[in-house]
Amino acid sequence: MELNQLYDAILAGKMEQAIEITREAIYQGVAPQEIINEYMIKAMGEIGQRFQDGKAFVPQLLMSARAMKGALELLKPLLQGAASVTIGKVVIGTVKGDLHDIGKNLVASMFEGCGFEVINIGIDVPAEKFVEAVKEHNADILCISALLTTTMTYMEVVIEALKAAGIREQVKVMVGGAPVNESFAVQIGADGYSDNANSAVAKAKELIGV
Fold this sequence. Notes:
The protein is of the alpha/beta class. The protein has ten helices and five strands; from the N terminus they run ααααβαβαβααβαβα.
């Protein structure tokens, strides 16, 4: 069995194939971390890069993420108790008044594929729910998404709510979405900004020092 086929299956977005190869690898005793780090993460990195270069598009990215998640489900039970399972906890959601979730889910999948534990709290999320989730899960990073110019200003409300709850210093805040840019992120006091799923992961790792 060729584990390289797992890389190819994820890249091609073939979920059944990815699951089959992963099952076989587990049966043959390949370490879960090796499967994740050497094949899954590299495949997601490659599809992310292609997306960035305009050589792949959202449907392919979502199919790859789906294939990767399908295979990852098989490995999760084997990873219980291994300290190196997650490199950080990410709470991610789209702000109140905004119902867009494709971009957010894409970023969430990339984070999962790259070894983060992701708590996806959905769309139309009020500030207090962001605060609750950060507290409850003891998150390292909070990712806030907005796709409308009318809702992006709510990101600042969320950051103010974190301050009011006394937990702003405990969590790194990243913002993203079509209307958002670097200067807006700085203006509202966010720690980081990303315009695509690939650089979001790189930025997150940089922020928490991994």
